[in-house]
Amino acid sequence: MLLAEKYPNLVKSLVIEEPPVVSLFFPSLPPKIPNLVKNLFTRPSSTVSILKFGIKYLEPAISAFKKDNNKIGLQSFVKGVYGRAFSKITEAQFERMELNLKPHKAVLLGSGLPVFTPENAQNIKCPTLILTSEMAADFHVNINKRLKALIPNSILKIIPEAGHFMHEDNPKETAKQILEFVECYKS
């Protein structure tokens, strides 16, 4: 998304799946009190869903990672990210996540994600397909709705019968949506 915003000549169209851009609401974590209060009044449902994710899942994950209890940390993180569809995660998917533990742990213990602001989103000019899953965690739903409102030339599509790994949970519908979108902008 940052590439599309900063170098529009390099990106013809963009497809994103439930990006973790909490910075659309809170540019710094933990959020500063004035920003938190402002968001509680201007975007109460989004703010509550992000705070719930942070308190219920991220804090326990960070705490476990600090103690090198990686399996519990990863489980808490994934449960929060995957939301209502957590029970759908296969053992093979969880094993792949364990292989990617190092970058997840690094992000949660300090390196963080790049800040992506509402202004960044508004500056994306290329056609953008935002994919969200039918069983998305509430904070993802709110992020995706905000992206749809901010990115000028965007559409939001819901992938049915899928959780956060929509490309694995419902690959046929995910591919269909992407191919239809790309077909519109291929020339």
Distance between the termini: 21 Å
Secondary-structure-derived class: mainly alpha
Number of strands: 3
Radius of gyration, whole Å: 17 Å
Total of DSSP H or I helical runs spanning 4+ residues: 10
Task: Name the poorly predicted regions.
Answer: none
How would you spell out the order of helices and strands?
HEHHHHHHEHEHH
Strand order across the largest sheet = 1-2-3
Overall, the morphology is globular
Residue-averaged pLDDT, rounded? 89
Biggest sheet character: 3 strands, parallel
Describe the oligomeric state of these chains in a short phrase.
single chain
Helix content: 55-70%
In terms of DSSP E residues, the strand content is: 5-15%
Topology:
Elements: H1 2-6, E1 14-17, H2 33-42, H3 44-66, H4 70-82, H5 91-99, H6 101-111, H7 118-122, E2 128-133, H8 138-150, E3 154-159, H9 166-169, H10 171-184
Parallel strand pairs: 1-2, 2-3
Helix pairs in contact: 2-3, 3-4, 3-8
Can you offer a commentary on this structure?
The protein has 187 residues and is mainly alpha-helical. 57% of the residues lie in helices and 9% in strands. The protein contains ten helices and three strands. Strand 2, helix 8 (138-150) and strand 3 (154-159) form a beta-alpha-beta unit. The longest helix is centred in the first third of the chain and has 23 residues, at 44-66. The chain is globular, with a radius of gyration of 17 Å. 30% of the residues are buried. The model has no long low-confidence stretch (mean pLDDT 89).
